[in-house]
Amino acid sequence: MIVAFSVTPLGVGEDVGEYVADAVRVVRESGLPNRTDAMFTSVEGEWDEVMDVVRRAVAAVEARAPRVSLVLKADIRPGVTDALTAKVETVERHLAG
């Protein structure tokens, strides 16, 4: 499964980059395949391991912010691996053709 999620601290002002970095650090240290862009962090793995990473990422932000917003989208396809890369490669192939 792939989960794309965004963790936003609330009540800490406009500059939230350092808080978001705490969440991304948890994802990167998990060892699961992941990507971060301007809006979301995507992580790929089995349900329990991915949701544990999301939970810990939220907790990292929650430890420093009075309120946290979580947006989450999941692509649940049992038996599929490396979809994080394969999906992008498919689109790139179509763009090149």
From TrEMBL:
For this record, the Gene Ontology CC terms, alphabetical, are: cytosol
**Segments forming domain Thiamine-binding protein:** 3-92
Q: Name one Pfam family in it.
A: Thiamine_BP
The similarity annotation says: Belongs to the UPF0045 family.
What protein name is recorded for this chain? UPF0045 protein
